[in-house]
Amino acid sequence: MNKIYSTDLTDNQWNHIKDFFALPKTTGRAREVEFRQIVNAIVFLLFTGCQWRMIPLNYPCWQTVYYYFAKWKNDGTWYRIHETLRAQERIRQGKNKHPTGGAADSQSVKTTSVPSSRGFDGGKKINGRKRHILVDTLGLLMTVVVTTACVQDRDGLKKLLRTFGAHRKKLRKVWVDGGYRGQVIEWVKIRFRCCLEVVVRTDDLKGFVILPKRWIVERTFARLNNHRRLSKDYERYRKTSEPMIQIAMIRLMLRRLQPFLSF
After folding, report:
1. What pLDDT is stored for residue 210 in this prediction?
2. SS3 label, residue 39
3. What range defines the domain where residue 130 resides?
């Protein structure tokens, strides 16, 4: 298959993830679209920031693309692909697939005029939603929760850790900023046997300073913002925003693994 757009998956990238998608049915009407084209259309939409109805005609119709996007969101396909690629990337870089340390932070983003759940972040003066993410020491996403912007960082962290999967048992330390100080430190220690280490800027530092460990999660936010669909929260439902972030990280990890894939 010839590539049409620069966002399309290469043959090696597609072969690496194609087994996560269902095989064609042996009975009933044959499927008329290729899953590879569906995935390419979703990645194109995510990277360029276009509307669903503006997906190019080279791809399947937008209703079909959205149907499979929602289907793979609901059955956990995006999550399984993301977790598998993250484990492979960590092993490639000489790490255990289960991280023991990470960094957490939140990002408030505006929403559009589309009717949706939103709130007002008084600190950032933003009316929209807040993305709470936890990344490992390589900057790879471990878990994400999207809330209204009025949710405090401390409350968002509790939601974040509750969604963490089986590899949570290996997590021992999480670096956070000053917004996570208070009772949440003891709550995390008792509930998850994990230490929250607050990294704050001291008064004697002047100008721009890279804070230890904190820069890791900020770099991940910067990489997510390279995808125009994530420049704001364009989704009607918060649960749709979370797989969009996972797909952005899937694209990033496939590009990292590309030189090491051989089929």
Report:
1. 67
2. helix
3. 11-260
